[in-house]
Amino acid sequence: MPIQLRSPAKLNLTLAVLNRRPDGFHNLHSHILKLDWCDEILLEPADRLGLRLEGPACAGVPVGPENLVIRAAERLAAALGRPPEVAITLAKHLPHGAGLGGGSSNAATVLLGLQALWRSGLSDAQLAEIGADLGSDVPLFLRPSGALIEGRGDRVTDWASPWSGLACVIVPRFGLSTPAVYGACKPRDASRPESPWCGRMTARQFMQTLYNDLESAAFEIEPRLQEIQQALSGVDDRIVRMTGSGSALFTLFDRQDEAEQWRISALSAVGEPVTIHIAQSA
Ligand code: C5P
Fold it and tell me: Would residue 137 show up in a list of annotated catalytic residues for this protein?
């Protein structure tokens, strides 16, 4: 039986870069919100491993073994001692190189789908280990909920956000390189920060508590991103944050009409060409 799955985007609501590790990665402390903005994945039994890309955001996405979904299928098959026989159709809606976690989400979703298709008996911990080997952001997508991620990103705890509603996600035409942004970042050299929330909050209150330690490094590498952030902050006096290592930015709303109105004003305020997508928190 074919399996149809949705592969969601994420936002890093907070992102503290604690310190650089001997393995070259950084220890993080980051609260993750999943969005109801998804790629779609179809898994069908086949006599060999294949990937077909479609959808509005598939330009520039690798179709060979550099694509994490291929590596995910190969790694799971190797762990199960079976051939990686599956035809994967990936409909891309999420932009690439934007800090929304699209590729990592696709890999995690394929791991979860193949667990079912191949009737694999691997434990959650075994699957998380395969996920962490594929990429730092893969384990957080193996769980349906919001998450607090720590370590390299491989320590994941379920986390319920004190706010839910709508995100305007601003996507510039340019992407950013994750290794370059981490390389330019100055870590805090401090222990984990406290979570600053108690009780439900409005979108405006919540935005005031969010931060991303990678922003200044990203702005150094790509000054146009800072210009976009400054232009957008002036629209209805909203705080605008970056997600992950960029290049997407976001701001949060409680009501659909507010989000739509802001989107119209923002598109005319910003000098650079951007797209703005309105997504519901998942
Ligand atoms: O794990 P992933 O392949 O997504 O990481 C891409 C790059 O991002 C790493 O090579 C590293 O430069 C940087 N990174 C980091 N610390 C993390 C996650 C990623 O330095 N916790």
Answer: yes
